[in-house]
Amino acid sequence: MLSYEGKIVLAPMVRVGTLPMRLLALEYGADLVWTPEIIDKKLLTSTRTVNTRLNTVDYISNRTLVLRLHPCEKPKLVLQLGSADPELALQAARMVAPDVAGVDLNCGCPKHFSVHAGMGAALLSEPDRLCNILKRLVTGLPGVPVTAKIRLLPDQEKTLELVKRIGATGIRALTVHCRTPADRPRHPAKYDMLAEIVKVCPVPVIANGDFFDRSQFAGILETGVRSIMLARAAQWNVSIFRTEGLLDPMEVSKAYLKKAIEVENPFSNTKYTVLQMWLDRPYSDKNLTRKLQSCKSMAELCGTFNMEYIPTEPLDLDNGEESDEVLCN
After folding, report:
1. Does 274 lie in the same domain as 150?
2. Which of 109, 131, 178, 295 is catalytic?
3. How far apart are CA 306 and CA 288, in angstroms?
4. Is residue 329 part of a domain?
5. pTM for this structure?
6. Is 109 a catalytic residue?
7. DSSP for 41-52, written as a single string
8. What is the pLDDT of residues 103-159, one digit of tens each?
9. Does residue 327 have a pLDDT over 60?
10. Catalyses which reaction (predicted)?
11. What's the gap between Cα 177 and its chain centre?
12. Domain extent at residue 275
């Protein structure tokens, strides 16, 4: 069964964590990778299709690609599920369980799309509902490790009490994003509670938040957390998973585009991800980002990086798009 000990893992990232990013992260050395959050109801309206041309498993709803998985990632792939209902969560998880190594419940996303429907960070204020969903997943998915990802509560004692309750549900690991739901990415992560959380949590704790350099890892691991989850650092340069050191961002962007073409990733999602790889970071190239923003096709994206684009025949889906509405970290 999947182990969550001593791992460096790719976080569930809105729109960015689709198949090409996950495959590239694994190639560079990620121990585990999470899908973006997929909502239970959306999965339940989808049909599982084996794409023999791409050798992928596609979940398609109303001609829209909801999720694309590759068999090579299965041993290290965790589905992140968005849910506010134990039975819907279990039904959706059972659909995808044959194609993944683990299932994770999103209990930390502060975005309106999640919280207004009682999912994500909304579950933090409803611990009974949160724990009931986890218990249902644990009992209903024998042999499939179940985990949860939370944020800190503003009150330390309430955070510790919640961690105890979650840890008693039978989950295999707990990811802690070291911010509160009200915090934004510009607010520094709060690491001071990690050691106390580890003390009261009976399962391995995975730390998440503001890890931008591998030199930070040793200090965080001293708190007793067992693994580290990378989000923005991987988004900006996914070669951070390489023990040998970072690669040039241009090289990484080209590698990402190559993966995106190989798995026929939707153009809009590919463009969005490449832009996120270059925006809001110290070495952002404004000229490059302007060029990327103006791209209207995969060929133009490739041309920006002096790459040749060899088109393939896309699936007969509406605009070849992957559903954005179901992706939330």
Report:
1. no
2. 109
3. 12
4. no
5. 0.94
6. yes
7. HHHHT-EEEEET
8. 999 999 998 889 999 999 999 999 999 999 999 999 999 999 999 999 999 999 999
9. no
10. a 5,6-dihydrouridine in mRNA + NADP(+) = a uridine in mRNA + NADPH + H(+); a 5,6-dihydrouridine in mRNA + NAD(+) = a uridine in mRNA + NADH + H(+)
11. 13
12. 249-320
